[in-house]
Amino acid sequence: MLYAFCEATVPKITVITRKAYGGAYCVMSSKHIGGDVNYVYPTGEIAVMGPEGAVNILHKGKLSEEKRAEVVDDYRNTFASPFIKLPELGYVDEIIYPKETRIKLIQALELTQNKSKTNSSEKTREYSTVSYKV
Fold first, then answer.
1. How do residues 98-120 score in pLDDT, each as one tens digit?
2. d(Cα 95, Cα 24) in Å, to the nearest integer?
3. SS3 string of the chain?
4. Which region holds residue 73: left if phi is over 0, alpha if psi is between -120 and 50, else beta?
5. Lowest-confidence range among 37-41, 82-86, 92-96?
6. Residue (of 17, 18, 42) closest to 95 by Cα position
7. 32-48: per-residue pLDDT in tens?
8. What is the mean pLDDT of the chain?
C-alpha cells in the first residue's frame, strides 16, 4: 500500500498542524517520498521522535523534574521547531498560519492541477519524479 501511495499521480499536499515524528512523518506525504506541497503551522513539530521520548532515552532518569523540563524545552526548540531550517532543508515549503490554510491549499491545488509523473522505473531520476506543465 505504501508503494501505491508513493507512486500515485494525484496531487499530494500536506499541512502539518502538530506532531510529525519518525516513520509516520516520512510516509504521510513528506517531501522524502514525493509529496508535492508541504506546509507546517508554527505549532508543528517535525523530528525523529518526540522531545519527551528523546530526553527519556538520552538521559534515562538521571535528571530532576525541573532539569528534565528544561532539557525537553531545549530539544523542542532545537530539533522539533518548524523555524529551525525546515524550509531551507526542503522538508516543508512554507510555514503558514491557520487562517492562511484555505488560500494556501487552493494555491497548491492550482499548482498541481496539471501534474504529470514520469515512469518510476527510469534510472535517470535525480531528485524528483514530478514535473508541472504550464
1. 999 999 999 999 999 888 765 55
2. 20
3. CHHHHHHCCCCCEEEECCEEEHHHHHHCCCHHHCCCEEEECCCCEEECCCHHHHHHHHHCCCCCHHHHHHHHHHHHHHHHCCCCCHHHHCCCCEECCHHHHHHHHHHHHHHHCCEEECCCCCCCCCCCCEEECC
4. alpha
5. 82-86
6. 42
7. 888 899 999 998 888 77
8. 79
